[in-house]
Amino acid sequence: MSNSSFQHHQTAHCESGVISNLLGHYGLQISEPMAFGIGAGIFFGHLPFVKVNGVPGTTYRIWPGAIFQRVCKRLGIKMEIERFSSPEKGMEALDKIIGEGVPVGLLSSVYYLPYFPPSYRFHFNAHNLVVYGKEDGQYLVSDPVMETLTTIDPESLVQARFAKGFPAPKGKMYYPVDVPTSVSFKLPIKAGIEQACHYMLKIPVPLFGVKGIRYLAKKVANYAEKPGDRKATLYLGNIIRMQEEIGTGGAGFRFLYSAFLQEAAEYLNKPELSKLATEFTATGDLWRNFAFSAGRVCKSRSADAVSYKELSEMLQQCAASEEVFFRKLAQVKL
């Protein structure tokens, strides 16, 4: 019971990767960067009140599921989405749909996916993957962050789909029921860019967008006093982990968005987008440098570790770079 025609492509990020792989199966070719850009996936938020594994949450992309919803809406795709009150109902529904030869997108917890190396398995409950069939009691998996197709046993898949914690996946599964084979990306690209600029520059709450990066920078400057050195390394560790989460993260999302702008420049014949794409990769480099320095602080390599004040200044630099970029992007006439 498998869909041998399912094409697996490794991608940088799970949600935009699943979109690209799933829609490609139905003949709608959309690259991962294009899906990420149309879905306005680029974002920043620091949420001191939302604890992830006991430490404040930091996100470098829009909340899970939003990219998918926006891409479907903007491209006119109808998607069936289901959640379940029990694992039994969830697995029964999955078996029924893949039995009909339909690949299914699933929300899961990284912690319970045995094909991930142990160092990558932490309690992150918003990982997307595709199950496209079942053979010899094993589910056939296309996980976009993996190089090749893989499999998972039913017990692990139940644990991953019905993991506890925030956000609880509740067995969420989704699959297209109506996919147009040809669409114009022009208006969706425009809508995606406008929304990303709005979210990064104009949300009045100081926890989000460029303001959110500056808010985090001020917090980090005082980490030695509050929450204190021991907890500060946990806090910093989480900022880096969410930044570099399974190969993508904060810097990776910046490079992914740059790739989207390169594609958009060609599609819309707007060379200024290509120039901005190059500028934004430099912002990605700033984030990478921050992660590298913060990682040294976490490992207490005191001889060459930077101070919390210096880390704070690096974040202020990231904020300034992002503000300049998004203001320029908002001014491009699309």
From TrEMBL:
Pfam families from the UniProt entry: BtrH_N (PF14399), DUF4872 (PF16169)
Entries under InterPro entries matching the protein: BtrH_N, DUF4872
Domain (Butirosin biosynthesis protein H N-terminal): residue spans on this chain: 13-144
Annotated DUF4872 domain residues: 156-329
Superkingdom of origin organism: Bacteria
Name listed for the protein in its UniProt record: Butirosin biosynthesis protein H, N-terminal
Species: Chitinophaga terrae
